[in-house]
Amino acid sequence: MTTEPDSPTRTCVVLQPGYLPWLGFFEQLYRADAFVYLDDVQFDKHGWRNRNQIKGPSGAQWLTVPVRISGLKQPRINDVLIDRTKANWASKHLKSLSMNYGATPFFDWLYPELAEMLTRAWTNLAELDIALVDLLCAKMSLSRQIERSSALNISGRRNERLIEICRHFDCRTYYTGAAAQVYLDVRAFRNAGIEPVFQDYVHPTYPQRYGSFVSHLSVVDLLFNCGPQSLDVLLSGALTAVEVG
After folding, report:
1. Which one, 24, 31, 76, 223, has the greatest CB density within 10 A?
2. CB burial class (10 A; 0-12, 13-18, 19+) of residue 142?
3. What is the pLDDT of residue 242?
């Protein structure tokens, strides 16, 4: 990894907003000196922007925020509105959380703040997602510089724009998910003096209710079960990353 002499290497992470994201999202945020929400790209209808999974007696189950995208052509994430005609979605999510996690050790440590947040009069999906991540970070005492791509006035095609975002924050390392290996132009990044590093997240196990351990759930599953120790648990298996050879 190339660095300036006597100059620490800063790391940039760029991720789309997600609803109550999984542990790997927060591991990337933890590693970031500059964390950017990629909120002005096309909304993926079957992605993680408006849904995630928690654990119940029968295994993983979905929590989905209803959104209004019918008839819209390639809406951007930050333009997607919550479907207010389905006003009881938040109460349904809270009921599921209460039923499945009410007996966990740290239910009272997290649930009241989640309930207060979810029952606000949200209209914009990205605003909801980002506010929830802020809350979850606060519960884990995790604080980083966080920005939104829509506020940076940086344009360009996918790789070009990511490189310019890294440059904007004076970052010489770009830390990204493993799936980015499909499209990331490693040579272009290196020619720009930026080293790509791909996440290879080793998911930890921790105490859960309802039988065998289920991984890749929303981070709230971890927080309800492990409370203030959640960040340590989250990072306990996360110390590997893949640098391109």
Report:
1. 223
2. middle
3. 38
